Amino acid sequence: MTPAREPILTRIRTGLGRPGSSEPDTLAAGLSALPRGYRTCANLPARLREELFIERLRDYGVEVATVPASTVAGAAAVRLAARQARSIVFPAGFPAAWLPGEFNMLEGDLLRPEELDRVDAVLTGCTVAIAETGTIVLQTGPAQGPRRLSLIPDYHLCIVQASQLVQTVPEALEKLDPTATLPTTFISGPSATSDIEMTRVRGVHGPRALEVILTGAQEESPRLDEAV
Fold first, then answer.
1. pLDDT of 145-200, one tens digit each?
2. Deepest of 22, 64, 123, 187, by most Cβ within 10 A of its Cβ?
3. What is the pLDDT of residue 224?
């Protein structure tokens, strides 16, 4: 801390009735003492969790297909064809069984941003997905690639396995903890922002279109409103 800042901060602390400097351990102790009454574990069975995730995604305007693992490639081909996409990038480590045929498929980890800007779509997996917020989390690694891979192309098709789906944000953070140092992207719907007049514009910070294929989901389910 610079000499000029310390006297100012000391006067502020004194005025607030908090004399002395704010040591890191004191700050950490204060943070740990804060009440945290939010829910940190799941209370929904798997199928209801999947339905909630799909509902949240559709609230964001995301198209969702639920398919068996054996038909992921075919479902991806249908979605890509519907978008009239021809050139598709995918990350290193992406499962070969999920790659659709009849497209110009390019491994994209080493492509430059200007090259990624010329492709029609990106096809990735994810690290974890959060049902309550409809969020997909990508990290730099196999089947997900570097951050630019999922941020530059205009259309993102993401494969989410039901086993990667958790209900709450705290559960997701716990799963991410072992790889917390990796570059991480949280995606909740297509990229969008609003100007001062609240005009909503898509594609400012990432793809204008996001679609999800959910695989490995449960076969049967009760309705969401039947959950306890």
1. 999 999 999 999 999 999 999 999 999 999 999 999 999 999 998 876 766 666 66
2. 123
3. 46
- Please name the residue that has the structure tokens 């602390």: 13
**CA separation for the pair 108, 47 (Å, rounded):** 34
**Homologous superfamily of 46-226:** NagB/RpiA/CoA transferase-like (3.40.50.10420)
**Residue 34: both structure tokens together:** 């804060």
What length is written for the chain?
228
Residue-wise pLDDT for 117-151, tens only, equals 999 999 999 999 999 999 999 999 999 999 999 99
pLDDT of residue 11: 78
Which parts of the chain are beta strand (E)? 63-67, 87-90, 104-107, 121-124, 128-130, 135-139, 155-161, 165-166, 184-187, 192-194, 200-202, 209-215
CA distance 69 to 161: 9
For the residues of 54-94, what is the DSSP string, one character each?
Answer: HHHHHHTT-EEEEE-GGGHHHHHHHHHHHTT--EEEE-TT-
How far is residue 194's CA from residue 76's CA, in Å, rounded to a whole number? 31
